[in-house]
Amino acid sequence: MSVTLDMSQTPLREVNTTLQAAAKAHSNEPHVIVNARGSHAMAVGLDGPLHVTVKGSTGYYCAGMNKEATVTVEGSAGPGVAENMMSGVVTIEGDASQYAGATGHGGLLNIKGNASSRCGISMKGIDIVVHGNIGHMSAFMAQKGNLVVLGDAGDALGDSLYEARLFVRGTVKSLGADCIEKEMRPEHIDLLRDLLERAGADAKPEEFKRYGSARKLYNFNIDHAGEY
Amino acid sequence: MEKTPQTMPRQSWTFSNETNAEIRRAAATGIYDIRGGGAKRRVPHFDDLLFLGASMSRYPLEGYRERCETSVTLGTRFAKKPIELKIPITIAGMSFGSLSANAKEALGRGATMAGTSTTTGDGGMTEEERGHSEKLVYQYLPSRYGMNPDDIRRADAIEVVVGQGAKPGGGGMLLGQKITQRVADMRSLPVGIDQRSACRHPDWTGPDDLEIKILELREITGWEKPIYVKIGGARPYYDTALAVKAGADVVVLDGMQGGTAATQDVFIEHVGQPTLACIRPAVQALQDLGMHREVQLVVSGGIRTGADVAKALALGADAVSIGTAALIALGDNDPKWESEYQKLGTTTGAYDDWHEGRDPAGITTQDPELMKRLDPEMAGRRLRNYLNVLTLECQTLARACGHNHVHNLEPEDLCALTMEAAAMAQVPLAGTNWYPGKPGF
Lengths: 228, 441
Known about the structure:
Distance between the termini of chain B: 65 Å
Family (chain B): Belongs to the glutamate synthase family.
CATH superfamily of chain B: Aldolase class I
Radius of gyration of chain B: 22 Å
Structural class of chain A: alpha/beta
InterPro entries (chain B): Aldolase_TIM, GltB, GltB_archl_type, Glu_synthdom
Radius of gyration of chain A: 18 Å
CATH topology of chain B: TIM Barrel
Distance between the termini of chain A: 55 Å
Order of helices and strands of chain A: EHEEEEEEEEEHE
CATH architecture of chain B: Alpha-Beta Barrel
GO molecular function (chain B): glutamate synthase activity
Helix content of chain B: 25-40%
Strand order of the largest sheet of chain B: 5-15-14-12-11-8-7-6
Oligomer: heterodimer
Number of strands of chain A: 11
Strand content of chain B: 5-15%
Number of domains of chain B: 1
Largest interface: A-B, 43 and 36 residues
Largest sheet of chain A: 11 strands, mixed
Keywords (chain B): Oxidoreductase
Number of helices of chain A: 2
Protein name (chain B): FMN-binding glutamate synthase family protein
Helix content of chain A: 10-25%
Largest sheet of chain B: 8 strands, parallel
Strand order of the largest sheet of chain A: 1-2-3-4-5-6-7-8-9-11-10
């Protein structure tokens, strides 16, 4: 049995209250949101291992700040999907708008289509797999975690990067300040294989290049001011 | 033979000794000056206003017998659980990382004893702070360091930080010497690196987006907690109006005297408006929207005395917030550390290299030995005392103006000593019934 929540008839507050209570109670019943129609802030703040499916596309911040929950969007996602997620899995069957996975601390964000600009901005431990392409300024100031892109990356990838790892199979239009290509060592191949498998991605880890921080901007040096 | 009279050596006003020293420092190092604190330049301030007091047209309240209320409720617009404070003075957001854990604990202790709230800062919420703060406001900052939904849920209010008075439009920098293992772990960063705090939020741009972000925060917290929006003193009329439009319960307005843990001196001294200049435009925006007193206004930046508190309230604020003054109450820049300040090339009252982590008072440091110098219980009591004095002073002035609640103070209770203050506060120049810009003259 599953629980259906119809956004055309049920206020957002009631939808989220229902989902949050079910997550907290570790409900085994899958929950399905229908007639999503681009609503904002759906399925946010879930604190438990609940399965939620959203039929249709979502507005801003779908699945934001969740822990342990599994959310699948059978459509595309608006800006800030899965922002600051802590754990669990969020899957987007379509494309994702700007700031996907922004500041995420953990869990897996699996985007089957493309992701727009600033994907993984300021990420802090989340794993993001994008099956298509990503836009400019992705992984800006990314601190921790892994961003995997099966397609191409736009301008200024990994600008002002900290310790996040970036894996791109296609082309990179340009790298941002302090982001460089790095050696793909066996441990990275293993890590990537696992991520691709978890995301159900049809790709081999050996096809990717790895990018990371040159760590030249870690401590301010006036001679590097022009890099910023 | 009589000596020819000489011209007296004359220092340049433009190229003062202080200016020349900065030129030499810049030439030697090739880097701008970074420091903590707020604007040090003289700007029109609350000192330029006076209360008129009671007279033939108003009668005062008896100071020792008649009550003068000080309570304030913040977050009455949408939040199911607004914050009730006994006094209209809160503790401003200051980060763990910038401040020691003992300092954060002391702020929580002092605020709680005085019946008010304290506020987290960049870097997340610490147990010391949550455990000792009966009412804690959780800052939602561009960096999102340490941001997590559990802390949001155990906060009493959420403050979305758009800007701060010391650096409207600027981010921050916590230098590597203060990034200890604990600070690094909370911020998901390597130990010892310079940690940058972004100048704008990573997942929204502009007031239309902010409205949706606030919706998300309310949905995560069940619409229980007040949402504050903190703005720097840049364009107070429009920024306040847009914060209200975005759904804020409370607007926190920080003028240029408001402090920071660390940023460029040129930013602190040359960007933003004085606190005094910001209040009336912000109040006007609230009045124009029919939201004055429904959306509360908290003013910060250079609040030092009960007179400052009373004047800010008289101009239309619902409460004030203190940061630098709270640190001084804890023991920052105390003369007892003078010999150590001198070793650092500075002196009591002027120490502002908070970013270097070598604070002799043990407040703006992560050095375990220096931190021990601050006893959080004693420092908390000092802060409690100071907050009590501010409150008593504010009540004294309100009673003298005939008010039984500090919120009944009004612009008509004030006059200005200077043309600038009269124009900014929109209260008459002393001895006149006129202020610059007043219609009809």
